[in-house]
Design a protein that fits this description.
Layout (H helix, E strand, L loop, with lengths): L17 H31 L3 H22 L8
Helix pairs in contact: 1-2
């Protein structure tokens, strides 16, 4: 999935409503949270199977997704379960 490029926006086009932006951010935060959980599970599996490089990259992906989920959702993610 590519990130939107701000340079391509047309200033004459109306921007989305605040409700639309909020819904989009909420959906993106939810997806990022899901990726966080899945990357965490896969990193644990990789660690158990003695795959340190894969574990490292999965933890990197987990950290990126977690950071993005927090930015978009504005709430901490409970990992106590």
């Amino acid at each position: 999935m590519s990130r939107p490029d701000a340079s391509k926006s047309n200033s004459k086009e109306p921007r989305g409503t605040t409700a639309e932006n909020s819904k989009t951010n909420e959906e993106a935060a939810s997806i990022a949270s899901y990726i966080t959980d899945m990357a965490d599970e896969m990193a644990k599996l990789a660690s158990r199977c003695d795959m340190p490089m894969l574990c490292y990259f999965l933890n990197l992906a987990r950290a990126e997704a977690d950071m993005r989920a927090r930015e978009l959702g504005g709430y901490p993610i409970d990992r106590s379960a």
